[in-house]
From TrEMBL:
A GO cellular component entry from the record: protein-DNA complex
Family: Belongs to the LysR transcriptional regulatory family.
Keyword Transcription: yes
A Pfam family annotated for this UniProt entry: HTH_1
SUPFAM superfamilies: Periplasmic binding protein-like II, Winged helix' DNA-binding domain
Name the record gives this protein: LysR family transcriptional regulator
GO molecular function: DNA binding; DNA-binding transcription factor activity
Amino acid sequence: MTLQQLKYIVEIVNRGSMREAASRLYVSQPSLSAAVKELETELGFDIFIRSNKGISLSMQGSEFLGYARQVLEQAELLENRFLGKKPARRIFSVSAQHYAFAVNAFVSLIREYDATEYEFAIRETKTHEIVEDVKTLRSEIGILYLNDFNEQVIRKLLRENHLEFHPLFEASPHVFLGSNNPLAQKEKVSLDDLAPYPCLTFDQGIHNSFYYSEEILSTVSRPKNIQVSDRATLFNLLVGLEGYTISTGIISSDLNGENIVSIPLDSREKIRIGCITQKSMQLSPIGRRYIELLKEYINETSL
């Protein structure tokens, strides 16, 4: 087992395919495949599961990857300290439901990250795709919510994909409204108050189940419904159509402007936000720092 082989494994995971990794590593794909196969033979297990849809990590491969990253990080520290080498390009990605606090923490991570080269990604996407991204390590961390209604289904999905849910915080539901909405001055709103206004929800694509909805109370019948695919469009419609959406109550005026307000919803429901990661895989230092920044931002925000 060599450091070069470990670098190959990490790069394949980061790129999501042998072809992309080979291109980035400046080696031929057959040479890369042979190096991986040689390592798998030495270890006595398959690091990757290969199919006509591509490759994904095996359970043992996920555990191996966590150790491989740690070894490479320690080797880099030694090289930087004693050989004067510059730090390698850092790669980090997170997939999340459409939460401003996830973006705020990501912004803070970028701002404090001192490097001349990095490749970070944040994907605001559908609930099922968040699970798929973390399962395949397209993203190291996923961010989504559980509540009494969806928890059994989501936890089953996580177990089937060898993922874990780590709680971050619990919130009471709030309604996001445009500041011009007639309800914007109320201290609290009810579902009856909201009935005349369009309800905005995030489209879940082919997995458009009540259980995958980003918004709680997804089974409540509403006369006016609009599905959107991105947060900017949703906020534009909150203002332009006097619509509403239900979320955690954490909103960022820095990112979303001053024309969106958050009003408590009269409901006993609770929203439990957490991050999902692969079981048995240790987070990278960047991943750990991102979660610290998430918690710091959440703690600074009054729910």
